[in-house]
Amino acid sequence: MNATRIVGILLIVAGIAAIGIGGFSFTKETHQAKIGPLELSVKEKENVNIPGWAGVAAIVVGGALLVFGGRKG
How far is the CA of 11 from the CAs of 33, 39, 70, 71, in angstroms? Predict the structure, then answer.
C-alpha cells in the first residue's frame, strides 16, 4: 500500500469522525494578575465546531485518492 492510499484512508476516517462528533471543546486558562503571592487566573471553556461540509469534503477527497491515487502512468 503506497502513501497516497494511506492518506486517502486517513482522510475518510477523519471525515467520518468529523461528521459523527461535530466538534470538540477544551479549557483555556489565562493568568490575569499576579500580585505578590496571589495569582488570579480565569478558566474559559472553548468550543470548536467542525462544519459538516468539511467532513464530507474530506471523505470525497479521501475516496478520490483511493480510486485515482494508485494509478501510474
Answer: 43, 44, 16, 19
